Amino acid sequence: MKLAFSTLGVPGLPLPDVLRLATTYGYHGVELRAHPEEPVHPGLDLDRRTEAAAEFKAAGVEVLGLAGYARVAAPGEDEPVVEEIRRLLDLARDLGAPYVRVFPGGGTEQSREEADAAAARRLGTAAEYAADVGVRILLETHDSHRTGADAIRVLGLVGHRQVGSLWDVMHTWLGGEQPSETYAALSPYLGYVQVKDIASAEDKTPLALGTGVLPLAECVEVLSRHGWDGWLCWEYEKRWYEAAAPLPDLLGAGRDHLARLLNESA
After folding, report:
1. pTM above 0.85?
2. Residue 101: beta bridge partners?
3. Which long-range contacts (CB under 8 A, 24 or more apart) does 151-156 make?
4. How confident is the model at residue 266 (pLDDT cuts 50, 70, 90)?
5. pLDDT, tens digit (0-9, with 9 covering 90-100), for 87-121
6. Residues 118-145: pLDDT tens digits?
7. Among 105, 82, 85, 102, which residue's Cα sits nearest to residue 93?
8. Predicted confidence (pLDDT) per residue in 142-174, tens digit
9. 3-state DSSP of the chain
């Protein structure tokens, strides 16, 4: 498995500094938070996109994916959601990123069936464009569709190879799902896995990997047992928890912890 970290952990950090962290601490890739607050987002012109792709190539670091904020199950019209995904797909193509992340985002005023149908409809529409640009859309286990069981209700309806899943280990744990259950549900669709750690279900302030309650060892063991060789991406939610320790101070130990889990599960 290859290791990456998300720029959610280093809010607003210039791209050269992000790449320096990756090379210094031995991460193979970076997940880019695709938001206007960040150096890389869908509003960039083509020259800047080309420059960013060249910076990654020169550093020998891969763009794992773009963490977008489209909410595919949200109430409302389809077209704005599909257009938001298309803009992410264009940016991913220009950067050479294989994945874009989307959220479910279903509303409390919808039935489960309505939310599933909206998500599947929009993802199915966007999938054709994703195939044209060679990028895969990943539905994250999050908010209204927190578990693998929730996500596959949508993914099964879509049934398109360009639409898959992103396993966020915190949300499946919060949803009461065991790692073996999540993997069984998501394995046909799995793009990559977001790892993190927290103190408890009540206190989600990000912690150094291995110092909280999330079942990281079990997740890695399940993945290894099934021969999965994709990406583990550390999503440290510093942007939402300003009091959390700075991520750069933790990256070396985090890499070592993941390497140890991988060795123990081999």
Report:
1. yes
2. 67, 138
3. 151/104, 151/185, 151/186, 151/189, 152/185, 152/186, 152/189, 153/112, 153/116, 154/72, 154/73, 154/104, 154/116, 154/119, 154/120, 154/123, 155/189
4. confident
5. 999 999 999 999 999 999 999 999 999 999 999 99
6. 999 999 999 999 999 999 999 999 999 9
7. 85
8. 999 999 999 999 999 999 999 999 999 999 999
9. CEEEEEHHHCCCCCHHHHHHHHHHHCCCEEEEECCCCCCCCCCCCHHHHHHHHHHHHHHCCEEEEEEEEEECCCCCCHHHHHHHHHHHHHHHHHHCCCEEEEECCCCCCCCHHHHHHHHHHHHHHHHHHHHHHCCEEEEECECCECCHHHHHHHHHHHCCCCEEEEEEHHHHHHCCCCHHHHHHHHCCCEEEEEECCCCCCCCCCCCCCCCCCCCHHHHHHHHHHCCCCCEEEECCCHHHCCCCCCHHHCHHHHHHHHHHHHHHHC
Please choose, from the candidates 68, 3, 1, 11, the residue with its C-alpha nearest in 3D space to the C-alpha of residue 248: 11
What is the residue whose two structure tokens read 């044209």? 132
Count other Cβ atoms within 10 Å, centred on residue 74: 21
And the tokens for 83? Answer: 């257009």
- Distance, CA of 119 to CA of 116 (rounded, Å): 5
pLDDT in tens, 204-218: 999 999 999 999 999
